From TrEMBL:
Domain DNA/RNA non-specific endonuclease/pyrophosphatase/phosphodiesterase residues, every copy: 68-286
Keyword tags: Signal
Gene3D superfamilies: Extracellular Endonuclease, subunit A
Name by which UniProt lists this protein: Endonuclease domain-containing 1 protein-like
Organism domain of life: Eukaryota
Signal peptide residue numbers: 1-36
GO molecular function term, any single one: metal ion binding
Residues covered by the ENPP1-3/EXOG-like endonuclease/phosphodiesterase domain: 69-283
Pfam families registered for this protein in UniProt: Endonuclease_NS (PF01223)
Amino acid sequence: MLESNQWTCLKMGSLHATASAAALLALTTWCHPCRADVGDFAPCTDFFYSTWPPKGLPGVPICQRYLNKYRFATLYSRPRRAPWFSAYVFTPPAGRRPKEEWKYEPQLAYAKADGNMVPFPPGKVDQNVVESQAVQLDYINSSYTRGHLNPSLHHQDLQDKESTFTLTNVVPQKFGSNDGPWAWLEKHVSQLLTKHCNGDSYIVTGVIPYETDRWLKGDRVAVPEYLWSAYCCPNYNKSLPVNLANTFPTFAAIGRNDPNSTEEIVPINRGVRKEFWGYDVRLMPLATLEMYLQQRFGTVFTVFYNQCSEP
Ligand SMILES: *[C@@H]1O[C@H](CO)[C@@H](O)[C@H](O)[C@H]1NC(C)=O
Ligand SMILES: *[C@@H]1O[C@H](CO)[C@@H](O)[C@H](O)[C@H]1NC(C)=O
Ligand SMILES: *[C@@H]1O[C@H](CO)[C@@H](O)[C@H](O)[C@H]1NC(C)=O
């Protein structure tokens, strides 16, 4: 059973659109004693540029832990049963894609769990787990794929890759986006950072909700209208090709997850293959991304400390 203070976290998590600074403060104070690895980014601030998590949205901080090691960080929304964003340090990819073994977070359901993600059991899933997060059945036979926010192909270490296969790092994403323009973006960013970034690259990838929430198969898991992503590479090679001059130290993107969305934020390129039609990604400066996030969230959302300015 969930304890009463955890329900407080849950209720406050749904205040996202109107959260004031006071509510955010109360959220942190309330959730702090909940448990070790949910409710506090303190053990995993290394995954954020300047150890500074993005500011502006209430949710449940999860230090994503796999095989007793922190791998990345997620701001999770209990009412949406989905992440707001995941943050990680990029490493030039190498090696094979791991086998798809989907995991869940016992600590979202049981305060005493040790904070490690674990694979779903082969049979029926515990009802408290089902209540507290998305499970495999939510996605099966839906018209959405499991879209990684932190993708396995942005990592070198096999266990780091495996750790991205947790449903708290996943949102309902249309195939046309996940296998099309969004996949191309992930590859593009990977090549760009591998080639031109000399030090650490910090990436934050998240969602923009519909103005009126939509739900996977009608309930339980919220579907995003757009995905967004931004990187911060404070230490980069200054002799950049002219066409990349404004893309360091930071750049961002928004991708469509619905061909029916209007075109104010991301226009549609009608020249692409039919299956990817309407899933375009628009590259943009960080400040432009933050403007769109502020518009939709109704509150200032800051992705990187000091706009990822150089140290
Ligand atoms: C998914 O759909 C197939 C075909 O309609 C059906 O046989 C199967 O039982 C469904 N699975 C679930 C988990 O709903
Ligand atoms: C920076 O880029 C230039 C041109 O591509 C290359 O010659 C040089 O070795 C790079 N320097 C570093 C420190 O990576
Ligand atoms: C877009 O609109 C069409 C026609 O109304 C509908 O069939 C389709 O399901 C919609 N797509 C999404 C992703 O909502």
